[in-house]
Amino acid sequence: LARSLTITSPDQLMFEKAQGEKVTLPCTFELSEEDEGPLDIEWVLIPADNQKKEQTIIMYAVGRIYNDYYAALAGRLQFTNPDPKSGDGSLDIQNLKAADTGMYMCKVKKAPGVQSIKIQLTVLGK
């Protein structure tokens, strides 16, 4: 049976944090031998405000981390593991702000496998 890439993160996909705190959004995965393409990990923010569009906030592609897409989080986010291809694409966000509230989606792609999980983050006022 060909098994493809799987995301192994736990099912607790809602986090509540206070402003100024740090959160780690989990996105761990296992690859299978069937997956041959380059590994791609992308985090997308789906804002709570429907007027705003989805925004890629950080990605790992072709062995590099690209984290300068989204000015609102600049300097406050990073992959938890400096080498995400090890199977850990989790995301750390520091110094949380109310505006960081939203749905975060982790997409892991390695052809032919594609998996994603969604995590709701709510940042509470002090």
Question: How is this structure best described in words?
Answer:
This protein is mostly beta strands and 126 residues long. It has one domain (6-124): Immunoglobulins (Immunoglobulin-like), CATH 2.60.40.10. The chain has strands at 6-7, 14-18, 23-25, 29-30, 40-47, 55-61, 64-66, 77-79, 91-93, 102-110, 113-124. The strands form three sheets. The chain has a six-stranded mixed beta sheet, with no helix packed on it. Strands 3-9-8 form a three-stranded antiparallel beta sheet, with no helix packed on it. This is CXAR protein. InterPro entries: EJ_Adhesion_Regulator, Ig-like_dom, Ig-like_dom_sf, Ig-like_fold, Ig_sub, Ig_V-set. Pfam families: V-set.
